[in-house]
Amino acid sequence: MSVALEVAVVGAGAFGLRHVAAYRSLGVPVTALVDPDPAVRDRAAAAHGVARTFGTVEDLLAAGAPQAASVCVPGPAHRAVAVTLLAAGVPVLVEKPLAATVADAAAIVAAARTHQVLCQPGHILRHSAPHRALYDAVRAGRLGQVLAVSSRRDRPRALSRLFPDEHPALLTAVHDVDLAIWYAQSPVVEVRATTRTRPGPASPVLVWAELRHANDVVSSIRNSYLLPDTTPNHTSDLVEVYGTDGVAHVDLGHPTLLVQAGQTEAPDWLLSPADGGGALAAELRHFVGQVTGAETSAVVPLADGLHVVQVATAMADSAAAGGEPRRISLEPLS
């Protein structure tokens, strides 16, 4: 795939640079990099051959709007960046979660609809080959009627130090909420959740949630930040779908390369490899196809991105209230 499309990446952190590498693997030029830290953006631009750098989205637009942009800034900044780009007519892929609050997510949806500009929520697992194969099996009826979805996602303890102000429900469990909605093929109407902490950190290091969908499917989500800091990501990720005619699962606990010598190494070749490719490249290929018109249907509808934020927020609220259930209205947000 080689497309004459000028793309900007907003946010030069670790995942923003994964976007740069993935675009390059597709033959799509990243012509601008935006980050408020001049040292970070200049170093990243030099390392990845990006010609132009800017401190703000406003500076980027003043120099000439790109044809598309990836929004890879921290969640609380998603609304300001995405709404500004959408108002300028720039199609955006917004990394998960769509926003840090329901109000911010609704504002992004409203901006996309008002300006009639593409906004693709960045839920990468819908573009992962094994997760997609499981979805295809569900859609084909191979498991019969879906009864339940269960998922587990464990991460190193360092996440609670790196992101002390971000609730696990909105940082990592959003992946599992999205998978639950996708595999159940139904929105969530009720949530019960609980959290636990470790001595020291005030923020939760474990979230445990039960979801009920509109079609009466039940989903269980378990996320923790309890693994040793040397543990690679993804090595315990598991999702299971239970149906009336069978059970299927995707287990990322068996990496294609596992090196255990001093420090365990299990490179991420499936989802977002550092040198491009994987599910991230598939996600960006779909985004570019949506921008150019080559793709006519959305893998992740914008409404699903908003609903994921609603459910994750309800999980955090339920846990804060001692596990009291939280109902989620399916009425459109104004």
UniProtKB/TrEMBL annotation:
UniProt xrefs under SUPFAM superfamilies: Glyceraldehyde-3-phosphate dehydrogenase-like, C-terminal domain, NAD(P)-binding Rossmann-fold domains
Domain of life: Bacteria
Gene3D superfamilies membership: Dihydrodipicolinate Reductase, domain 2, NAD(P)-binding Rossmann-like Domain
Record-annotated GFO/IDH/MocA-like oxidoreductase domain positions: 132-248
GO molecular function: nucleotide binding
InterPro entries attached to this UniProt entry: Gfo/Idh/MocA-like_OxRdtase_N (IPR000683), Gfo/Idh/MocA_Oxidoreductases (IPR051450), GFO_IDH_MocA-like_dom (IPR055170), NAD(P)-bd_dom_sf (IPR036291)
Domain called Gfo/Idh/MocA-like oxidoreductase N-terminal: residue spans: 6-123
A Pfam family that the UniProt record links to this protein: GFO_IDH_MocA
Name listed for the protein in its UniProt record: Gfo/Idh/MocA family oxidoreductase
